[in-house]
Amino acid sequence: MGDISLDAVLGLTALGLGADQAAIDLAPNQLASEDVCAMALRHGVVGLMLSGLEAPGAPVVSNDLRLTLEDHFRRQTLACLRQQAVLKKAITSLEGFDIRATLLKGPSLSVVAYGNSCQRPAGDLDFLVSENDVDRAERALAEIGFPRVMPLTTMRQGPLRLYQKLYKHYQLINSEGSLIELHWRLLNEPVLPDTFGNGFTVNVALNRQEIRTLPNEENVLYLCLHGTLHRWERLIWLADVIALFKRGLVDVDRLRSLAREHGLCRVLGCTAVLARRWLVAVPELQPFECHATEKLNKSCENALCFDRARTNPTFNQSWQELSHRFALHQGWPYRFQTATRFLISEGMLNRLAGSRGPMWVVGAKALALTPVRALSARTFAQSAPNTGPSDQR
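Now predict its structure.
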């Protein structure tokens, strides 16, 4: 996809977020609707682009592009409504087991940031529960047809406990392909405490339910962390942060205090730089720009601009990913656990699913197999063809 398509997506998304004027000035015949829509879908900004087309100063685009975007948004809306039906069943089942679950991102974020539960797409539903409630929550969701698929249900207690120490969620999928991620912490990386964010309730449109979600300041910090960890590969993640500030929902003093407490000023600084360069400047975040590092900014910008080939990641790309995550935070406990998780992959734990013994024995087995995995990864990367970019997350 060419630079013209990217410029169109960035310009219309910025207008949809309230930018004063479009950053593009293109004749309608310069935009191929197929390329623009494909990029808009990958970045999850179809709804924002349609809002941008209605904004003052919007560029003139072809009727074909407008109709195609409208068609994609109708499909997105139907998918969101189906997902909200699943959400209602899931919350009812969890409440039946007396579990207080917090919804991360998804429909609750769409309502809070945009005032419309279908404005942003969501590929799955993310629930955060207490670590002590994970097993009961898994049973509650299994009762409505969501069995666990990751990690394997055949995994013994030793590997399972190690998985819970290194990773943050289970994946559960029903027969229709709907995905629920059951979290007991927000991130794999030990950046935020497990008790981070007590949650509050908002009304999600069409469900008439009170949905627990993170307070706005915790939500901004979590969204910035999530986006930076994934190198801001999708524009909608950046747009979500901007939208929360645009609606005046964030207590900046409290956010600043949280960022300093958890050592995340550079994460907010990177977010501020990217928002200003790509979409809409956020004045409230600009004081954090002095904490941003060029390495972190460049790493995120490269992923934001271009589709990265992740189908067959090379051995060097894996080390670059680890280096990127090290640049995120300076704490040594964070770096130690990040490196450990890099060495003991989810796939490795699935291979050891039948291992007997306590958690530390399974960990020792996994570390012993690490050189073999690294050697096979290097050999595979040298021989495997580049098959192009993978599907969006």
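Confidence is low (pLDDT under 50) at residues 308-313, 372-393.
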